[in-house]
Amino acid sequence: MNGTRVVIVDSGGANIASLEFALQRLQVPVTLSADAGEIRAASHVLLPGVGAAGDAMARLRANGLAQVIPRLTQPLLGICLGMQLLFESSAEGDTPCLGILPGRAQRLPPAAGRPVPHMGWNTLQPCAASPLLSGIECGAYAYFVHSYALPLSEATTASCDYGLAFSACVQRANFFGAQFHPERSAQVGARLLRNFLELH
Fold first, then answer.
1. Is residue 109 part of a domain?
2. Number of C-beta neighbours around residue 61 at 10 A
3. Is 102 exposed, middle or buried (0-12, 13-18, 19+ CB in 10 A)?
4. Is residue 37, in this structure, part of any structural domain at all?
5. pLDDT cut 90: percent of the chain above it
6. Is 1 among the domain residues?
7. 146 among known catalytic residues
8. How many domains does the structure of the chain reveal?
9. Which side of the chain, N or C, has fewer Cβ within a 10 Å radius?
10. Residue 183 is among the residues annotated as catalytic for this protein
């Protein structure tokens, strides 16, 4: 991975430190930044997110990144809320998002035995070929923490079921997303991050 210059967008998410540690375990140097120039110069960009969609979008707009991110041409991986922000909008606070992918994040419907947020280990069902999922088997477990999710669409490369099927991984051009937390998903998460870092 010589020449790899990874930037994590400083979006204020609570999972940033654990994501930095996960990349350090892969022996990849990483920079945390909200600077548009530094993000444009990266070879790979990670957009994490934990919390409310409206707050996250407000931070991106305040730093001028809501205009920068959709124009990036290098591989970008949105994680958890960061994946949801790649889409047009979220029902959480009726929030307009980055608009890179068509779709709207909707709140998961609670039910007996299925509390919201969806929190814990669940299985991935790959449904389209994607370099992000290379070496990750159907039924592999990943760690989720979320209350909102994206329905299945043409961008979906892996799904998960929590009373209904939702997008666990998405891809369009150089933009990728994982609804789960790879930094908390043991070997499956490490493989996904390594796959992402090998993209050009």
1. yes
2. 12
3. exposed
4. yes
5. 90
6. no
7. no
8. 1
9. C
10. yes
Structure tokens at 162: 């929590």
The verdict on whether 198 is a catalytic residue reads no
* Farthest-apart Cα atoms in the chain, separation: 50
Burial class (CB in 10 A: 0-12, 13-18, 19+), 63: middle
Quote the CA–CA distance of 121 and 144 in Å, as a whole number: 6
19 domain-assigned:
yes
- For residue 30, pLDDT over 80 is answered with yes
Range of the domain at 168: 6-197
36-69 per-position pLDDT tens digit: 999 999 999 999 987 899 999 999 999 999 999 9
Kindly report the CATH number assigned to the domain that includes residue 29.
3.40.50.880
Cβ-based neighbour number of residue 119 at 10 Å:
12
State which amino acid sits at residue 47. L
Q: What is the pLDDT of residues 63-77, one digit of tens each?
A: 999 999 999 999 999
